[in-house]
Structure formats: structure tokens, C-alpha cells
Design brief:
By secondary structure, this protein is of the alpha+beta class. It is built from 10 helices and 7 strands. Strand 5 and strand 6 form a beta hairpin.
């Protein structure tokens, strides 16, 4: 487990350099590239954090070489140093690899502070995933238990017509289960293999309903719930790294901006203000949900 922990630590340090590099390039990226491309970069980064592979490792090494000076060549590193790709060198204090206490039983490997650090990391990852998955399953069960299919609602004809028209416009062939729920604070798509579009149980104007459905159907089509699962997994593995938490926040922002941009591209200019008003109305009704794996409006 210690070797796995050191590998995760190596990737975290490289990822921190990449995130810092992206931060420095943010003004330029905002001018030249849209939120969709920035969102794809975050997804690419998350893939590397969960499933590291050489190509991105080489990129991280290049970034690290540009932004930090290395004291020694990897081939000349002392034995008490861990050499990371991109010539990142971490000094591991001898106290970390020294036995904590004298080993009384023969044939048993001594426990070191590095072993304890690896155990804390593993426990943190397991607890992170457990808490988030249990919260998600509890919320999903509560949300759907207090829901009703939109086809059974009094205004079902209007919403079904709108839903089918937008599915055709967005080239969505899959069925889109849609439900009203009294537990929903805002419109959202929830679920992995059988995603459900959930709407708060309230009255909607025709314009608001059009904007909301289009926004959520774009999330549905892009499978943004899976992207958030990927980022949550990366967050669980690298829970100790503040840059990973920051990248999760940026991914969420760029995901919503990319979705909003797609909606605006299909609207007439005179409808921009009304769409913005719809976003503001629902943003005021909620704080961003703590439950993971949910793509929602706002």
C-alpha cells in the first residue's frame, strides 16, 4: 500500500503543477477557448488522476520543469529520495522510513510513519467515497419516493409535447423519464444507468419550462453525471490535495457555463435575457447541493 500511496502522491504533485499552469493561462483561455474546451481539459485531468497514463504524465513533467527548478538529476538521486516523472524529487525524511517501535516478532515487517501515512490516505479515500455514495443513495431514494411522473400531472400534455420536441431538436433517441418531486430544490438529472430528469413540483411558465428542459436535456445527452462521478473519484483518491478540490469546483463551473453556452447558441438574441432570468430564479432557490453525481440547473 505504501508504493500505491507514493504513486498517488507523485501524481498529485504533478497534477498540482498542471492546475497551477491552467490557472496562469485562464485569462488567455477565456479569450480564445470556450467553456466546453476548458471542461474537456478538466475531464482529461480527472482521467489522469484516476487512471494515470504516460502521455499526460509527460505533459505534467513538462509543466513542472517550466515552473520549478530541480536540484538533482533523477539518475543521481539518493536512496532516501523518491524521484517523480518530470524530475520532481521528493526528500523522504529518514524518520518516515524508520520503524516506529522495535519489532518483537521475527519475520514481521516493521511499521513506519510512511506506512501510517499510507493507511491514513486509504482510510480517507474509503470514508470519502462511503459518505458521498450513502448520501447520494439516500437523497435519490427520498427524491424519487416523493415524486410523480410528469405524464400523470395535470399539465402533462404541455410538458410532454415540449419534451418530445426538444428531444428531436437535440437528437436524443433514448427515453427520458421525467418526474415532479416535492423534494427537489431545482431541476436536475440524477442516476447513472437509468438517469431521470427531476423537476420541482411547482407551476412553470411556458418559457421557463422550455429553458429548463433544454438545459437539463443537454446534461442528459452529454452524460455529465458520469463526468462528475469521475471527478468525485479523483477527489476521493487525492482528497488531501487542495488543487484537486479547486479543479472540481472549476470543472463544475465550466460544465454549467458550457451547458448554458449550448442553450444560448440555439436561442434568438432577444431570448438571452429571459434565459438569464430563469437561471437566476432557480439559483436563488437553492444552494449548490452537497450530494455528488447530480447534474443540475444553476
Amino acid at each position: 500500500m505504501t508504493n500505491v500511496f507514493l504513486s498517488v502522491l507523485r501524481i498529485s504533485l504533478s497534477a498540482g503543477a498542471v492546475v497551477l499552469f491552467l490557472l496562469l493561462l485562464t485569462p488567455l483561455c477565456n479569450k480564445r477557448y470556450g467553456a466546453r474546451w476548458r471542461y474537456r481539459i478538466w475531464v482529461f485531468l480527472a482521467l489522469w488522476l484516476v487512471f494515470p497514463f504516460e502521455t499526460v504524465g509527460m505533459l505534467a513533467g513538462t509543466v513542472q520543469r517550466l515552473y520549478s527548478e530541480q536540484a538533482a538529476d533523477s539518475r543521481q538521486a539518493p536512496e532516501n529520495q523518491t524521484v517523480l516523472p518530470g524530475r520532481i524529487v521528493i526528500d523522504i525524511p529518514q524518520q518516515m522510513t524508520a520503524p516506529i517501535a522495535e519489532q518483537k516478532e521475527e519475520g514481521k515487517a516493521p511499521v513506519t510513519f510512511l506506512d501510517l501515512a499510507a493507511a491514513v490516505w486509504m482510510a480517507g479515500s474509503v470514508i470519502f467515497l462511503f459518505v458521498h455514495f450513502v448520501s447520494y443513495l439516500h437523497y435519490k431514494r427520498k427524491l424519487l419516493k416523493n415524486s410523480v411522473s410528469v405524464w400523470e400531472a395535470s399539465n402533462s400534455a404541455a410538458i410532454c409535447k415540449q419534451l418530445e420536441a426538444l428531444k428531436t431538436l437535440l437528437h436524443i433517441r433514448r427515453p427520458v423519464p421525467a418526474r415532479y418531486s416535492s423534494e427537489a430544490a431545482s431541476p436536475m438529472v440524477i442516476g447513472f444507468f437509468h438517469p431521470v430528469l427531476v423537476l420541482p413540483d411547482e407551476a412553470y411558465s411556458e418559457m421557463d419550462l422550455y429553458f429548463i428542459l433544454k438545459h437539463e436535456l443537454i446534461h442528459f445527452k452529454r452524460k455529465d453525471v458520469w463526468a462528475k462521478l469521475l471527478f468525485m473519484t479523483a477527489n476521493a483518491v487525492h482528497w488531501f490535495h487542495p488543487m484537486v478540490w479547486y479543479s472540481l469546483k472549476e470543472m463544475r463551473n465550466d460544465r454549467e457555463i458550457a451547458c448554458d453556452s449550448s442553450v444560448l447558441n440555439m436561442l434568438k438574441e432577444q431570448d438571452y435575457a429571459e434565459y438569464g432570468n430563469t437561471l437566476i430564479r432557480y439559483a436563488e432557490k437553492m444552494s449548490f447541493p452537497v450530494f455528488p453525481f447530480i447534474s443540475n440547473l444553476g
